[in-house]
UniProtKB/TrEMBL annotation:
Lineage: superkingdom: Bacteria
Higher taxonomy: Bacteria, Bacillati, Bacillota, Clostridia, Lachnospirales
Residue ranges of domain HTH araC/xylS-type in the record: 198-296
Name of this chain's protein: AraC family transcriptional regulator
InterPro entries: AraC-bd, Homeodomain-like_sf, HTH-like, HTH_AraC, RmlC-like_jellyroll
GO molecular function, one term: DNA-binding transcription factor activity
Keywords associated with the record: DNA-binding, Transcription, Transcription regulation
């Protein structure tokens, strides 16, 4: 289980080289997420895996494929692979959730049997779509919550044969929601906009150590700079500069916590070429200077 509440590594939320959820034999991982004033946003991200989530308490807004979905305690969320999504909490509220991120190959999508061809592959390619959110009053919701509890129990206890039971539960999940599949795919324009944003996030991640002019990002989308900045903030929930600084700060934090690089090397390796600016925004985020963060590791 991986708990995400603030200063922990949040690389699972970005499409980054080397990030995996589980391993090739058991491509599945559980995450507990807490949104609060200190950690108000899970930034826009996507992954090759599907995602199954239970809102345990509180409320927030999921932004899925560029559309808003308010969710609250008891709601269940099922996302197909490679769909862009983020979440943010309401002011003066909080949100706690449990999520399983799992690759459909775990269920046999790579095979050529009827389950792969008729159900899993069409779900992965979004030829077949289900509601992203199964609200508390949806007829399938009680069953999905019960299945989440069983999955969590198996994942935590890891008793003999638990992998088989978890695989069976995920397959049962799809059989149970099959009657609720939707006939209409997302609008092509929405998919196009989502793909453009994915390309921008990929570019930022690949060039984090470099200067990243807004003009270069706007060019990827074929937008003007002003239109791109509005587009980015609308769909990511923060300005482009805030987003890039967040990624750079988290990379610097991780490097400093390794205890193997100096403060200067951590700054430059994270894309900060102005040390005074790096010190200022690092302290604002982590309530300590980079030197203090490094010293904390050295003293352990």
């Amino acid at each position: 289980m991986y708990v995400v509440t603030g200063q922990q590594d949040r690389s699972f939320m970005m499409k980054r080289e080397g990030v995996s959820h589980g391993d090739h034999l058991f491509p599945l991982k559980k995450y507990d997420v807490v949104l609060s004033e200190s950690f108000p946003l899970v930034p826009a991200h996507w992954h090759e895996e599907a995602e199954f989530t239970w809102i345990r308490s509180g409320a927030c807004v999921y932004h899925i494929d560029l559309c808003d979905y308010p969710v609250q305690e008891g709601d269940m969320i099922l996302l197909p692979p490679r769909i862009l999504h983020s979440s943010g909490f309401f002011p003066r509220d909080h949100m706690m959730s449990e999520s399983f991120v799992f690759h459909l190959d775990f269920l046999g999508m790579g095979g050529s049997d009827v389950c792969s061809v008729k159900y899993l592959r069409p779900f992965a390619s979004r030829e077949i779509v289900f509601p992203y959110v199964f609200q508390a009053d949806h007829p399938a919701n009680p069953l999905l919550r019960d299945m989440m509890r069983q999955l969590s129990d198996e994942y935590i206890s890891r008793g003999d044969g638990y992998e088989l039971r978890m695989k069976a539960l995920f397959l049962e999940l799809f059989s149970r929601i099959w009657p609720y599949r939707l006939l209409k795919n997302p609008a092509p324009s929405s998919r196009d906009q989502s793909e453009k944003l994915k390309q921008v996030l990929d570019y930022i991640d690949a060039h984090l150590e470099d200067m990243i002019p807004v003009a270069d990002l706007a060019r990827i989308c074929c937008f003007s700079e002003s239109h791109f900045m509005r587009f980015f903030k609308l769909h990511v929930g923060m300005t482009c500069t805030e987003y890039i600084n967040t990624l750079r700060l988290e990379r610097a934090w991780k490097l400093l916590q390794s205890g193997q690089v100096s403060v200067i090397d951590a700054a430059f390796s994270s894309g900060f070429h102005n040390l005074s600016y790096f010190y200022r925004i690092f302290k604002k985020k982590y309530h300590m200077t980079p030197k203090e963060a490094f010293a904390t590791v050295q003293s352990q």
